[in-house]
Amino acid sequence: MKKVVSIALFALLSSSANAQAKRDIPVNLETIVGIIRSNTSLTLNKRIQGKFRYMNITSLASYYKNSEGPTEMVSVNSIGYQFHKNIGVYSGIQYHYAKGFMPHIAVSFSHATPDFLIAITPYYNFMPFNGLETIGVIEFKPKLGRNTRLFTRFQGLYGHNLDTDIWAREMLYFRAGISIKQYTFGLASQFDYYKQGNRKVLDYGAFVRLALFN
To answer: Which segments of the chain have a pLDDT < 50?
Structure first.
């Protein structure tokens, strides 16, 4: 009887370990409360079947005063093939609050460990003009305690209009905080520079992030 119980316990622990090893990338929901506007973003990157994945990045930026600027909504939807653990190719469509629907292709280069993440993804947009957007992310999150980590994130974006050969947008985001299990909170700064209208947005505030696991 003891032998049966031991085998059953071992099988249960092995099953749990395998489930954790196969656990997919979490869905990250983040809200930033700044001085002049609030930002909410949702990031989803899930395996469909085999090496095929579905990725969605949706962000919403809203000013507290409507006269400050438009409400900005961007949603990127892509189907990808992860032919290498660090490299994937994607194709899909992006909805942009000012440009409408933009089909795209992209290549994702990434390297991740529990303490570090670096990812670079160039997008080629076909409409409403030929454009190139490159997004880069660096995270450093060393362990501080059993369930606690330092969280720092630097995110940049550069957009270039290939038809006119001029840049279209630059963006720099920074986060610094503490992660406790699936919750992360801290300070945030954001700099957005839009070529159209020569509009600059510099904002500071606090952020809260929730990682939703399978």
So the answer is: 1-22
pLDDT number for residue 209: 96
For the chain, the farthest-separated pair of C-alpha atoms sits apart, in whole angstroms, at: 77
Omega of the bond prior to 128 within 30 degrees of 0, cis? yes
Predicted local confidence at residue 200, as pLDDT: 87
Write out the two tokens for 92.
């899909």
Residue-level pLDDT at 4:
37
- In this prediction the pTM is 0.82
How much is the pLDDT for 1?
Answer: 46
DSSP string for 108-122: EEEEE-SSEEEEEEE
Q: What's the rounded Cα separation, in Å, for the pair 68 and 111?
A: 38
Ordered alpha helix ranges (H), the chain: 2-21
Residue 176: predicted pLDDT: 98
**Spatial CA neighbour of 96 closest among 173, 163, 175, 196:** 196
d(CA 207, CA 189): 9
Place of tokens 């400050």: 68
Q: How far apart are CA 209 and CA 86, in angstroms?
A: 25
Contact status, residue 72 vs residue 66, Cβ threshold 8 Å: no
Pairing of strands 37-49, 52-63: antiparallel
Q: Hey, how many other C-beta atoms are within 10 angstroms of the C-beta on 91? A: 13
Q: How many residues does the chain have?
A: 214
